[in-house]
Amino acid sequence: ESLQALVPLHGVLLSKDVVDNWETIESFQARSDDVVIATYPKAGTTWASEIIDMIYADGDHEKCRRDYIFNRVPYLEFRVPGMPTGIDQLNGTPSPRLVKTHLPIHLMPNSFWEKKAKVIYVARNAKDVAVSYFFFHQNVSALPDPGPWDKFLDNYMKGNVGYGSWYDHVKGWWEKRHDYKILYLFYEDMKEEPKREIRKMLDFLGKNMSDDALNKIVYHTSFDFMKTNDKVNYKSLPKEVIDQSTIPFMRKGIAGDWKNHFTVTQNEEFDGDYKRKMSGTDLHFRTVI
Ligand code: A3P
């Protein structure tokens, strides 16, 4: 039996380990002061998690939580045999907990909404996510072999990848952003002006912070700093889980890398398909089309 199997759950492909344990995940008991970082994979999860962790450490890098095996912000649906599950880690975490998830909104455990937990959603443009996800598949043993780029891109456009369709994910969270406590942010905005976006997070979380502390967060969460910070660059994970020998997890960290990977034909097809899938939403990304 392969670790690599992706199986559908309510129309969304998830790893078999997640689907096999769905009842445990679905019945997860959220707390009212949980803060969730929700993203489609490769949208800037690790970056946003580090920012929020530093906010909760009042901008003091030394005070950041350091006691998780996987990363400092447990990943709700994390399940790798032989390692503590995300839920095990969360159950052992004092409040306020930071929780990371890639679930589409319709699969979120209900208790997050019942407890009125806050969610920071980060969206990144579809093309850069496709490129980043393609490289990630080459690193992570639990993900299927992506095949050649052209094939992966085709699967991605069809939603035949882990966590399903990027289009459905970003739209699903966008449409519900006023129904729950959701702050909807964009990777490209964070790249453009991190301080402005961190201030939005602070406001949303009801936190005050000195300019000095805010500057420290900007500094410690820059791509260059995080790339060399072994607490967040996943270098502490065994090679069997993620092999970074050729492609580092902290790969490029820019907006617009898709231009180095999409052919003209791929780009035209992608844009046509994108227009169809994104028609009828007022959600707009600035680096695509
Ligand atoms: P690239 O592969 O395009 O470089 P996630 O954490 O959701 O898996 O997303 C990973 C992507 O975010 C990678 O994109 C990674 O380089 C990028 N990233 C991580 N930390 C970052 C930071 N501090 N600033 C900008 N991008 C960052």
UniProtKB/TrEMBL annotation:
Top EC class, one word: transferase
Record's subcellular location: Cytoplasm
GO cellular component terms given for this protein: cytoplasm
Chief place where the protein resides: cytoplasm
Entry annotated with the keyword Cytoplasm: yes
Keywords associated with the record: Cytoplasm, Transferase
Membrane-crossing residue ranges in chain numbering: none
This protein's name: Sulfotransferase
The organism of origin for this protein: Engystomops pustulosus
